[in-house]
Fold this sequence. Notes:
This protein has helices spanning 15-27, 57-72, 105-120, 122-141, 188-196, 202-212, 223-238, 243-259; strands at residues 3-7, 37-40, 44-48, 86-88, 95-97, 157-159, 168-171, 174-177, 183-185. The protein is of the alpha+beta class. Strands 1-3-2 form a 3-stranded antiparallel beta sheet, with helices on one face. A two-stranded antiparallel ribbon has the order 4-5. It has a two-stranded antiparallel sheet with strand order 6-9. α3 (105-120) runs antiparallel to α4, α3 runs parallel beside α7 (223-238) and α7 (223-238) runs antiparallel to α8 (243-259). The N and C termini lie far apart (56 Å).
Amino acid sequence: MNDFVKHAESAPKGYVAAEAAGLRWLAEPQVVPVVEVLAEEKNALHLERLDSVPPTPEAARELGRGLARLHDAGAEAFGWAPADPAYFGPLESPFAVETAPRTDFVEFWAEDRLRPLADSVTRVLGADGHDTVDEAIDLIADGAFDGISGQGTEEPSRVHGDLWSGNLLWTADGATLIDPAAHGGHRLEDLAMLSLFDAPHLEEIFEGYVAEHPLPRGWEQDLPAHLFFGLLAHVKLFGEAYVDQTVATAEAIIARAEQLGF
Length: 262
């Protein structure tokens, strides 16, 4: 067989269609390898079967360059997704996310994504933890991370949306994107998620990205604000094991916002 079948019998309605649409949308600009959708059914997705190889620094740099080109391809709006409903999380327990198109990054990130998610895990975070998380979200809502390193504002980028290291498959053709939560987002979102669980050759990925699309000095210090949703999602999905890291990330966001004058 030449295809890989992803079975989704227990997934919510529209999950398969959302993943298929996301993969096709990411593949549309033809700037970075994306696993090919061969067919979709109600509860199953047929994908190109790929053979993995060890990651290399050269492949990582090319991935960075490809991600920059993908982001530069743009999106209709912040929060817009190629399918509705849209989901985030593993096949076994994804949750729905807002897909309303927004012209402002803060409305999408702070109000549509972060605050509802933080409120849903208040009990797990605890009173002090939730207060710290809420303060970080307020600073994001104030515009501290609309641009990069406090400079300007970003237009909506075409992002994978869940680009932790497990959603990269390294092949002979380069690092290939799989399992997206694709939407219009901030260009640092994918880079932040790659940093969350230390993707292989992360510095080389960043080098390739900046070579293709230069970023302001200090941009890596903005990453906590852009991986915050991913961490809060881990609290929602997996519980207390991620609380300390999430609160520490909120503290880093607060410190960075203060450094930027907010």
